[in-house]
Design goal:
Keywords: Cell outer membrane, Membrane, Signal
Shape: globular
Protein name: RagB/SusD family nutrient uptake outer membrane protein
CATH topology of one domain: Serine Threonine Protein Phosphatase 5, Tetratricopeptide repeat
Family: Belongs to the SusD family.
Strand content: 5-15%
Radius of gyration: 25 Å
CATH class of one domain: Mainly Alpha
Subcellular location: Cell outer membrane
Structural class: mainly alpha
Organism: Larkinella terrae
CATH architecture of one domain: Alpha Horseshoe
Number of helices: 21
């Protein structure tokens, strides 16, 4: 972190003015100082990271807080309000954002000036490789959001006519991104980093697998672009990049703590779990750098109160590897019944019976709290168990940006899309992930039978049993880590954003429910609030209206059934939502960039 502050200072000097007229201009002196030595290159390159908790001018990597919030717009996430993005007429160019290019100039300036022949060629190539890695990350984010964007590979000044150029084609930009990633993977010299905060050769390969999987499947399923013929190239690149990490990276799935703890440990540890975490945003108490995971995930007002939906929770397998929904009684199982005997990641992702919290040193039961959750499926993945962290930016857990599990999933999906996925591939990817989660069945061979629930509710166009299971596994393993909405985009499954926000099953009104089986009731659902109320119990009104206004919290069968949240507010998916609109102010500055279809 200290190096980052120094590097930002040096980068700022590049554009500083003169302090005294008789001296060499400071911008010239600073440029020579930075680009004439390996230490200068290192200091400048540190400015590319800039991944503290709040985004800065040079931000490329997501911050810890970015990741913590990153799945608040996903098909499996009920939240305080329906996102404006999927409300008809609520979002457009005036509300859009993200068309910022400051960090790109910082990167391009470095690439253009890291040419001093006094520095060994391999050293220069290493740092240029880092710069091109960050440029690839920058552009991948832009293409995911806006589609076609201008490709800029030079540090422009205010007189450059290309400041007002139009957008380049997706193929041209993404081919340039791939060239940057190839250069990075071939030239970055760092092969290990115990802090898990630096870009290594394996991180570059891992990111390449992410980019290539996205682009390959996007081209395959988003057929209106007529790029299906090029999808195989990108999927093949994804396989090769993931395979390089698997063979050369030295990473393994974390299994410390056993099936009950090994998964969640990845998200609440103070230091990155280095056998699996490849890149992380870490805290630094000495510099007062923390994240606000608990505040965001346990506050009734600060966060979005994101809760998982029942449709998604139903996709977690039984421990024997069979679908939970193969039991015909699943629809009317209560919360305490349905969470038993399931994939151990469920109990490490949401509050289930047995979960406890620490309050002033005392260990207390931690059932789902309905001032935080709308569905009863209350996430714990990123939040710490001590209530001390709940009231501000206090969290000291490191936040994963990339981990080995994703690489296994990238490899499996790309091979399945290519039609080359084998039983051996299943064992070392999906089978390994499920084994870590405590699942005992179906680990040694890819499936041959389609799960009708998964197919009907999520992927009706997919008939390959293995591909369906890979998508199930990706959703569960990477839930709440920011992958879901981009996955829906590349799979062309945006319609899933219209799914009902449903919660656990409530068998009857006015019936107290003990959600963590500690012998104390936690919640009652009612239409007419009883005159006498039980101490320590939350009462939830599910009447048709409250004070003459439609009630956002209801039961699906009126007096029983699944909880539903905001079912009275329509959500509409439109083809145009696969890309964000170009912000209006940016179009006014440069009309040549045009607008995305439908906006």
């Amino acid at each position: 972190m200290k190096l980052q502050h120094i590097s930002l200072f040096l980068a700022g000097l590049l554009f500083a003015g003169c302090s005294e007229l008789e001296q060499i201009p400071e911008s010239t002196a600073s440029k020579n100082a930075v680009f004439s030595s390996e230490k200068g290159l290192e200091l400048y390159a540190n400015s590319f990271y800039d991944n503290s908790t709040s985004s800065g001018n040079y931000q490329v990597l997501p911050t810890a807080n970015d990741i913590i919030r990153s799945d608040e717009m996903a098909d499996f996430a009920a939240r305080t309000q329906v996102p404006d993005f999927i409300r008809d007429g609520a979002y457009g160019p005036r509300q859009s954002s993200g068309w910022s290019w400051t960090s790109l100039r910082n990167i391009n300036y470095f690439i253009a000036n890291a040419t001093n022949p006094a520095i060994p060629v391999d050293v220069r190539r290493h740092y240029i490789g880092l710069a091109r890695f960050f440029r690839a990350w920058f552009y991948f984010d832009k293409v995911k959001r806006f589609g076609n964007v201008p490709w800029i590979n030079k540090a422009m000044d205010v007189t450059d006519k290309d400041l007002f150029k139009g957008r380049d084609s997706r193929t041209m930009v993404m081919d340039s991104v791939l060239a940057d990633l190839n250069y990075a993977t071939q030239n970055i010299r760092t092969t290990s980093d115990n802090s898990r905060t630096l870009i290594t050769k394996s991180v570059a390969q891992g990111f390449k697998s992410r980019v290539c999987l996205f682009e390959g499947t996007f081209r395959k399923y988003q057929t209106s672009y007529k790029l299906e013929g090029t999808a195989e190239k990108w999927l093949t690149e994804a396989v090769a990049a993931a395979d390089a990490v698997m063979k050369e990276g030295g990473f393994t799935l974390n299994e410390a703590g056993g099936n009950d703890k090994s998964y969640r440990q990845l998200f609440i540890n103070k230091t990155p779990v280095t056998n699996e975490i490849m890149l992380s945003a870490v805290v630094d108490p000495a510099l007062s750098v923390f994240n606000d995971a608990n505040w965001w995930w346990t506050s009734a007002t600060y966060g979005a109160r994101v809760s998982l939906t029942r449709t998604f929770v139903n996709t977690y397998l039984n421990l024997d590897g069979t679908p939970f929904t193969s039991n015909p009684a699943y629809k009317t199982m209560t919360f305490t019944e349905e969470v038993k005997g399931r994939d151990k990641r469920l109990m490490q992702t949401i509050r289930t019976p047995g979960y406890t919290r620490i309050n002033g040193g005392a260990v207390e039961p931690g059932p789902p709290v309905f001032s935080y959750t709308y569905t009863g499926y209350m996430p714990i993945k990123w939040s710490l168990d001590d209530t001390y962290y709940d009231g501000g930016t206090r969290n000291d857990n490191s936040i994963s940006i990339m981990r080995y599990a994703e690489i296994l999933l990238n490899y499996a999906e790309a091979k399945a899309e290519l039609g080359t996925f084998t039983d051996a591939d299943w064992v070392k990817t999906i089978g390994a992930l499920r084994k870590r989660a405590g699942i005992t069945g179906g680990l040694t061979a890819k499936p041959t039978v389609v799960d009708p629930y998964l197919q009907a509710n999520y992927f009706p166009g997919i008939s390959d049993p293995a591909l369906l299971e890979i998508r199930r596994e990706r959703g569960i393993e990477l839930s709440l880590e920011g992958f879901r909405f981009p996955d829906l985009i590349r799979w062309k499954r945006g319609e899933l954003m219209q799914q009902v926000w449903n919660g656990f099953y409530v068998p009857a009104l006015d019936k107290p429910m003990d959600l963590n089986e500690d012998g104390k009731n936690d919640v009652v659902f009612y239409k007419v609030k009883p005159a006498t109320q039980l101490a320590g119990v939350t009462y939830i009104n599910v009447a048709e209206t409250v004070n003459g206004v439609p009630n956002p919290q209801r039961l699906s069968n009126d007096t029983s059934g699944e909880l539903t949240w905001l079912s009275n507010i329509p959500r509409k998916w439109d083809e145009k939502y696969y890309l964000y609109p170009i912000p209006e102010n940016d179009r006014l500055l440069n009309p040549e960039i045009g607008q995305n279809p439908g906006w």
